[in-house]
Amino acid sequence: MRLYYLLFVLLIVLANTSCEKSRDDGDWDDNIHLSTRELILPAIASSGQVTTKGDWWWVSEIHVDNQSYYDFEGVDLEFPGYSIKRDSITVTRSDVNTLDIQLGKNPEATFRVFIISLQAGNYFDYVKVTQEGSK
């Protein structure tokens, strides 16, 4: 009887310690490690760069004004070097730790906002790029 009790307790302890915590989509620890989440660029044609400590990530969406782009047909997102051009923005993953962002001139007096969404497994992050308006 004592042996059964001991085995039962051992079984419960093992069951509780071997179970992983269930996480919702996107509820992973940061495995991209962006150098910054926000860039402010001038109204002229300009560029910025964001670096990462993680090297297993890809661009999942580019949001320009009221338009979202997420189907990057012909682009191999698993390759460490690729470029995506949509509207007046070009996003280039030049190596496994570098994201280059190039913007065309903003002819409008108001600022523009671009959101570049990144994904690594079940972790999602973004870079917000604000381009100042022309004066």
Which descriptors apply to this entry?
135 residues; mainly beta; Immunoglobulin-like; four-stranded antiparallel β-sheet
Polypeptide structure, described:
This protein is mainly beta. The chain has a single domain, classed as Sandwich (Immunoglobulin-like). It contains one helix and nine strands, in the order αβββββββββ. It has one helix at 2-18, and strands spanning 38-41, 46-51, 58-64, 67-69, 82-86, 89-95, 98-103, 112-120, 123-131. The strands form two sheets. The protein has a five-stranded mixed beta sheet with strand order 1-9-8-3-4, with no helix packed on it. A four-stranded antiparallel beta sheet has the order 2-7-6-5, with no helix packed on it. A hairpin with a 2-residue loop joins strand 6 and strand 7. The radius of gyration is 22 Å and the shape is elongated. It starts with a helix and ends with a strand. 16% of the residues are buried. The mean pLDDT is 88.
The class by helix and strand makeup works out as mainly beta
CATH topology: the name is Immunoglobulin-like
CATH architecture: Sandwich
| Overall strand count | 9
Radius of gyration: 22 Å
Strand content is 35-45%
Mean pLDDT: 88
Q: Within the largest sheet, what's the order of strands?
A: 1-9-8-3-4
Which segments are poorly predicted (pLDDT under 50) over 5 or more consecutive residues?
none
Q: What global shape is seen? A: elongated
Major β-sheet, in short? 5 strands, mixed
From N to C, what is the helix and strand string? HEEEEEEEEE
Output the CATH class name: Mainly Beta
